[in-house]
Amino acid sequence: MTKIKKNKSLVRRLVEGFGKSILGIIIALIGFLLITFTVHQVSLKSEVKRIEPYGEKLKVFDGEMNIVDVGEGEKTILLLPGQGTASPYLDFKPMIDELKKDHRVVTIEPFGYGLSSQTDRRRSVENIVEEIHEVAKSLNLSKYTLMGHSIAGLYAVNYAQDYPEEMEGFVGIDSSTPEQPWPGIDMTVFDFLKTAGVFRALIKVNPETGLGVTKESPDFEQIKLLTMKNMSSRAMKDELQELSNSFPDSRGLTYPKDMPVLLFVADNEMNQKNWLEMHQAQVKDLNKGALIELPGAHYLHHTQMETIVKETTDFLK
Q1: Nearest-CA neighbor of 255 among 181, 174, 162, 149?
Q2: Superfamily assignment of 56-316 in CATH?
Q3: Where does the record place the AB hydrolase-1 domain (predicted)?
């Protein structure tokens, strides 16, 4: 009997000890999250004052869209970002500085990106295309080439359906295609980590990886500030969710046969099956369609900027 009691006492102590350990971990985790949340919210308020303005704001429907209009030349390029780019202008800036030597380059920061405002408009492909066109109208542009990274390819092929008389061509930087699979993304966990300030903590530990830019960049600090500001952008989040409709709605769309299209495609895009083949299909039946496969990952304009600028300039002649 005594032995049984001793065994029960031992089990009870082990259970109690395990329970206390779990409780201690939970309390520590809650404490960590309270600290990261508080630091994140306080930092956001102070960082807003340190963001340096650039470009100009245009009234577009229910908000203001920030654009940067630089350079001169016979050809005008409307430059569009990939989904979730905190500051399109600063992300593209090294490439813009080269392109503007021969072209007029207008960088568009969609609602919720860069220095643009939020919007209550649905982030459907139709609305986003309409907003890009409103910018073109505001600048009195009648002819221009769309150029863009990633999801800009989906908007560009839709734009070509609505405004083929204005759109002189498209240059895609590892751009999305209407035929690529889109599994959808559940942002619940990501939203929690953003709001709780965990992502801020991770970026602080490894800022170059988290921001996709080296500390040597003159725009490093501003990109960091804008990343923190737009990390929880409502318009960005709504756009990402809306892609579950935008991709199916765009299936089968192609560029007009006489529209010039140049596609730069990353050779190690491992996230998409048949990535190269989908882009080859986009240009194969065009009168002036070209595809250039480049070594590198998705952000080719970071690693292959010189080639992209040269080939784009030659293509637009």
Answers
A1: 162
A2: Alpha/Beta hydrolase fold, catalytic domain (3.40.50.1820)
A3: 76-183
